[in-house]
Amino acid sequence: MSNTPYRTALVTGASSGIGAAIVRRLSESGIEVHALARDAQRLETLASETGCIPHAVSVSDQAGLKALIASLEIDVLVNNAGQSRTGNITSTTPEDIDALVDVNLRAVLQLTRLVVPGMIERNRGHIVNISSIAGHYAFAGGNTVYHTTKAGVHSLSQQLRCDLFGRQIRVTEVSPARVETEVFGRLIGDMAEAKKRFFDEYDSLLPEDIANSVAFAVLAPQRMNVSFMEVLPTMQVVGGLNFAKKTSAPG
């Protein structure tokens, strides 16, 4: 148990990976966790394991989210749900753009808009946005739309701190690098192949690492706001400089 004043949390994208790990970690701290995702069966399994309260609702379901928030007092909102795609702007489809913007950015904005007024009224709350290093760095092979949506989450996190200045409401952005989750399997359509390509020869982060990062921020003393946390594998770096030769420029 912790001395945190927070009693309830809502975690999106909670049925697997980072979201499920966050549900487990916050539940262990004594917070009542509401786990939100589309996969009802996985949520029920998670509820049996952790005691969380499952909500099989899509983050794109505005009516469903509004009804849910109206019935709850949420102290901690963890905006974790997200999607990714392969390819760059030249190979992105209109459907890819809509899906990524809807889940990665629009849903975060809409859910935050629904939850923040209650936090303001109670003068108590914590918003945790799971972004990505893709929101801060450009690198070859990244999906342009994904990068753009995560940059939007970064900007939102910064602006929220201005909007909530003077109140006992904290905003934390956790920006992970490579984490071993099912997302990579969905990207290429084969988790075994994804494991072989992205993880077997690398020492990547695990979902529990991000969950512990979230818990560190949420359970920190109220005088302390962990505003931004970039979490990378020890063996991974970001940034860098590429300089193409004149003769190698694409025709």
From TrEMBL:
Pfam families: adh_short (PF00106). SUPFAM superfamilies: NAD(P)-binding Rossmann-fold domains. One of its GO terms (molecular function) is oxidoreductase activity, acting on the CH-OH group of donors, NAD or NADP as acceptor. InterPro entries: NAD(P)-bd_dom_sf, SDR_fam. Keywords: Oxidoreductase. Belongs to the short-chain dehydrogenases/reductases (SDR) family. This is Oxidoreductase. It comes from Gluconobacter albidus.
